[in-house]
Amino acid sequence: MAAPAGFASARPLAIPPGAAVIVDLASPAEKYWGILGEIGAAGVILRGIGIESFDDWTGQAARGEERTLDLATMFFPMSRVERICLDQPLGEVESYGQRFFRRVGRPVEEYV
Predict the structure, then answer these.
(1) How many domains does the chain have?
(2) pLDDT for 18-60, tens place per residue?
(3) Does residue 14 lie within any of the structural domains?
(4) DSSP character for 112?
(5) Mind giving me the DSSP string for 31-95?
(6) How many other CB atoms are found less than 10 A from the CB of residue 46?
(7) What is the DSSP secondary-structure string of 83-97?
(8) How much is the average pLDDT of 46-75?
């Protein structure tokens, strides 16, 4: 089987453990940013934080405050997972990792 145009191989693309991702959940609708632990048939393991708390968490890191907000290790059953996206910039829109770096001055992977 030939690879689709623009792809180097026909192998399915994978999001590797350790990648910064955004996980969209259903029932109830929620969104989390974090570092991917594992994707399996049962679900997803993420060390992350709710998108609504990301800016507060980043601000705390930028000010050098004690970590009152921090990442939690979570398991989401696959039945709730709608989408998992790499945390990447989209045109002029920064990724969450870039926003963290701009405000804190160091990569989010180093801080985590």
Answers:
(1) 1
(2) 999 999 999 999 999 999 999 999 999 999 999 999 999 999 9
(3) no
(4) -
(5) EEEEEEEEE-SSEEEEEEEEHHHHHHHHHHHHHT---SS--EEEEEETTTEEEEEE---BTTBPP
(6) 24
(7) EEEE---BTTBPPHH
(8) 92
Q: Which residue is associated with the tokens 């994978």?
A: 14
Is 9 within the bounds of a domain?
A: no
H or E segment to which residue 11 belongs: none
Residue 29 belongs to domain spanning = 20-111
Structure tokens given for 104: 């804190």
Report residue 58 as tokens. 């980043």
Has residue 3 been placed in a domain?
no
Task: Tell me the C-alpha distance between 51 and 13, whole Å.
Answer: 25
If we measure between CA atoms, which residue out of 97, 85, 23, 17 comes closest to residue 61?
97
Please report, for the domain that includes residue 65, its CATH number. 2.30.30.100
Angle at 31 between CA 43 and CA 18, to 5 degrees: 55
User: Which residues lie closer than 8 Å to 11 by C-beta, 6 or more apart?
Assistant: none
* 32 token code pair: 């989390």
**Within a domain: residue 29?**
yes
